[in-house]
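Database export, one record per block. Field names are fixed; values are copied verbatim from the stored entry.
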Amino acid sequence: MSIAAAVFFMLHGIAHLVGFVVPWKLANMEDAPYKTTIFADRIDLGDTGIRIMGIGWLLLALAFVAAGVAALLGVSWWPLYTVIVAAVSLVFSILGVPEAKLGVPINIVILAVILWGMQAGWNFI
């Protein structure tokens, strides 16, 4: 499970890069146009605020890659660490709806599987 989880976490982290490159105007994407609003366009953060959110997305990308590496190496803390990262990612995904709507169920599945596994006594290492 560790190899599959590691690859999945790394790919999920790479997907978070969209939340960085678009606000920083490093890429134009049809499905994720530049805008300064969050929470389904209800809150306008302005250019500076959306760039700060972009840094958050970048940190989440790096955090998920780190979760993947930790899972691959079988370190004891990767499940709890990944739960924390997925929870923060879920908040960012909700704030990023509709563009980040796919992240909501993905993060919920990550949280559910790991938390259920921890409760069931799975040996993640």
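Remark 1: Residues 90 and 108 are 7 Å apart (CA to CA).
Remark 2: The chain has one domain: 2-120.
End of record.
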